[in-house]
Design goal:
This protein is mostly beta strands. Helices cover about 5% and strands about 50% of the residues.
């Protein structure tokens, strides 16, 4: 009986004891791609101490534990007295982006993808924009970012240093203000300063006009009627235009010359004026025979521009010549100066006699009926022009010129005379209002070059303007751009110091009528721009792009 009781007691003790306690430990990574967590087990007896270890992925670092664990050590312990969950928190590595500048400018930083401040999470993509100050130009990135693209993105996967390089603009737009008072009153300066873009009339509604009746001319829309070309059509001449605010209302206007088709015709052309180019408010009148050159002037000093027009007339034997004309924009009327008829291929205006009013000078080139000779109309300030050709001394029948400019090249306060032709660019000093041919200096002696246009700009920064010349080659079979350093004591050819490719030859009837100095590509510095392109380059755009003081020919 005693033995039976003992067995029963043991049974009761066993039956009444508790089951063993087991607990679960859950470990996760935040974010999941930030790393991994290893643990000694997942099931633990009550009271066990579990060890968990956080291991960061590449470009992440372990930051801290949360949940049932705390601290910032990658390895920690958890006492298992219940089910528990721990979270290993990881963060992206942070790298410094150091941005420096050379020259005058700043750099803005824009986060394209996940980052903050100037220390960025690894993998952050930052867009850097170089912002030049004033007359400075951004040229390149250096360091951990290279090239000249702006703005440009950089990926932060380590500590990086970037330098934005700025240089002072060579020939900023403001350089066009650095001309003397007397030079600013020349037609060359006023006309060049009016250009801030080229204008192409071809393809617009003003390209071709048709004569419908007496003094009734209308734009040709749609296709041409070939049967009317000879009798009735007029076409805009390449480069014979002005596209600027001509009447002071703040809106661009257009003046253009249209020749009688098919050229050359012994008939007068049309003068077109469009008041506010975006409107249909146009005026068209029969005008000079051949609008060879059009320039801006201010003959009465009222601040409003007049347009001075030069024409050589019918360009075939006997080359009978033409008048000069002045267009008054305010009343849309033309005034013709006919005291001296000539083959006026070119001309210029400026205050020759220093009386405060702009005068007119031109040159009558070869004609079978008119001797070659210079022309001078003196402006008396009251709207009258008096012919005074006696200011020209020692000119002969051999002096055949067709390109003319006025400019004070030696800074003595007097406008000097520039005359160009085949193989010649003659510069004659103004001596008390007279020009003595025998004292002229020829700086372009290449007989294959015929001077078409002359510009003035200070390329070397010595406060004296150099002479930039566009010429045709071998009878309009190409073009050549040349730069000259000049004083009345010495001169030199310096084209290669500033320009790369400047010549095209061997192409029939190919030439550039004129050049302008303005910011063609809108990058803050001045470029050299061709206008009026003929022949094989008729459908091209040609300019010499300013690349930090060097000019590179660019053809589009």
């Amino acid at each position: 009986m005693k033995k039976l009781f003992s067995l029963f007691f043991v049974f009761i003790l066993v039956a009444c004891s508790k089951d063993p306690a087991f607990y679960t430990l859950t470990a996760t990574a935040n974010p999941a791609e930030g790393g991994s967590v290893s643990q000694s087990s997942q099931q633990y007896d009550s009271g066990d101490v579990a060890t968990v270890t956080a291991t960061a992925s590449a470009e992440y670092v372990f930051q801290s534990w949360s949940g049932s664990a705390s601290g910032s050590s990658p390895s920690t312990t958890v006492t298992m007295d219940s089910d528990k969950a721990v979270v290993a928190n990881f963060v992206k590595k942070k790298y410094a982006l150091t941005v420096n500048t050379e020259g005058e400018g700043s750099v803005t930083e824009k986060v394209i993808k996940a980052g903050a401040a100037t220390d960025y999470n690894s993998g952050t993509v930052v867009e850097l924009t170089a912002v030049p100050e004033g007359e400075w130009l951004f040229v390149e990135w250096k360091g951990d970012l290279t090239g000249s693209e702006n703005p440009k993105e950089i990926t932060i996967d380590k500590a990086k240093t970037v330098t934005a390089v700025f240089v002072e603009i060579q020939y900023p737009i403001s350089d066009l203000d650095n001309y003397s008072t007397i030079n600013k009153k020349t037609s060359w300066y006023q006309t060049n300063k009016s250009f801030d873009e080229l204008h192409t009339i071809k393809g617009t509604k003003y390209h071709v006009f048709e004569k419908l009746g007496e003094n009734d001319f209308r734009p040709v829309t749609g296709g041409w009627d070939e049967s009317k070309v000879e009798c009735c059509y007029y076409m805009a001449s390449l480069g014979s235009y002005l596209f600027t605010d001509l009447n002071g209302d703040g809106v661009k206007d257009l003046w253009a010359y249209l020749y009688k088709m098919n050229w050359p015709k012994n008939q007068n052309g049309l003068h077109l004026y469009v008041d506010n180019y975006s409107s249909d408010n146009y005026d068209v009148q029969i005008g000079l025979h051949d609008g060879r050159k059009q320039v801006l002037s201010d003959f009465n000093n009222d601040g409003n521009k007049e347009i001075m027009l030069f024409s050589h007339g019918y360009d075939r034997d006997p080359w009978p010549g033409d008048s000069l004309a002045i267009f008054d924009v305010s009343n849309k009327k033309y005034r013709y100066l006919s005291d001296d008829i000539g083959f006026f291929h070119g001309g210029a205006t400026g205050d020759i006699n220093k009386d405060g009013f702009e005068d007119i000078i031109a040159y009558s080139g070869f004609s079978a009926t008119i001797p070659v000779h210079p022309l001078y109309y003196e402006n008396n300030g009251s709207g009258n022009f008096e012919l005074k050709n006696e200011i020209f001394l020692n000119f002969t029948d051999a002096d055949n010129y067709y390109t003319v400019e006025l400019f004070d090249i030696d800074n003595d306060g007097h406008l000097d005379l520039f005359l160009g032709s085949g193989g010649t660019l003659l510069i004659i000093k103004n001596e008390n209002g007279t020009f003595d041919r025998s004292k002229g200096i020829n700086i372009q002696s290449d007989n294959t070059l015929g001077v078409l246009d002359i510009d003035f700009f200070d390329f070397d920064g010595d406060n004296l303007k150099e002479i930039l010349v566009m010429s045709e080659v071998s009878g309009y079979r190409g073009y050549s751009l040349n730069l000259y350093k000049f004083t009345f004591k010495n001169n030199s050819h310096i084209t290669s110091n500033y320009f790369d490719q400047t010549k095209l030859e061997g192409s029939n009837n190919t030439w550039i009528r004129s050049i302008h100095v303005f910011d063609y590509d809108l990058d803050g510095d001045l470029d050299i721009v061709g206008d009026g392109l003929f022949g094989d380059i008729n459908d091209k755009k040609i300019h010499w792009k300013n690349e930090n003081g060097k000019f590179k020919r660019t053809i589009n």
